[in-house]
Amino acid sequence: MEVLMNNSISTFSHFSLIISNPLNPGSFSVFFNACNPLELSQSPNCAYLCENRPIVDIVHPLALDYAEKFSSAEDSVLNDITVFAHKHPHAQMLSGHVQGKFLEMLSFLVQPKYVLEIGTFMGYSALCLAKGLQPGGQLHTIELREEDAKTANTNFDKANASHKIILHAGNALDIIPTLQMPWDLVFIDADKTNYAAYYKLVLPQMRSGGLIVADNVLFHGDVLQKEIKGKNGLAIHAFNKMVKEDETVEKVLLTVRDGLLLIRKK
Predict the structure, then answer these.
(1) pLDDT by residue (tens digit) across 246-259?
(2) Low-confidence ranges of the chain (pLDDT < 70)
(3) Domain check: are 208 and 113 in the same one?
(4) What is the extent of the structural domain holding 24?
């Protein structure tokens, strides 16, 4: 079968669905059961489902570009982190411009005194969340990898935020029980297989009305597959189900970047 996509012809043996792309008239979004991932991954106007590959580009790249264009700009330190992160082997772990601004906006709305972040990486999201802290407030962030923790601390110094951001290097499962604060805002963005464990640890310490934000809850489209095979996708799907069934919280799953689950303790 031949499909016209981005002014080029690609040949495939099987297909499930072809739908027109409203963001780019004349192009198509194609969902395949069997496909050539390399060809499709080179097309910015195609989301796909292969037998062993997840859907990518959950949000259309044109929509992402448009969102960045009409969002407030990153400050200089955040921009420097973005540029530096491009050289990192796990650059995709950075929250990025639009999600960072979203976290900053949430923090200003909540006006937290105590924030917990699980998974620091380079400190981008911590700096965004710290902007909404009350005077005298603290943000505690936990990072397992020592090298990333050092990079994050350097970035906190550059942003003159070290007085309000406290970084803990080590295993979050061990560190969280030692932090006895009434959390107003928690951001979970660490190893996916422990999301449920992190949730169970922090929820009892949340104040009523406190907000938990969990990142990557669509996990690159893995959770959208009929049969979820990867351990991370399975863990995230189980976490999403657990939160859905928890009647002590209100929740909404947003299709921002790789999926954000907002959870408010009743």
Answers:
(1) 999 999 999 998 99
(2) 1-57, 89
(3) yes
(4) 2-53
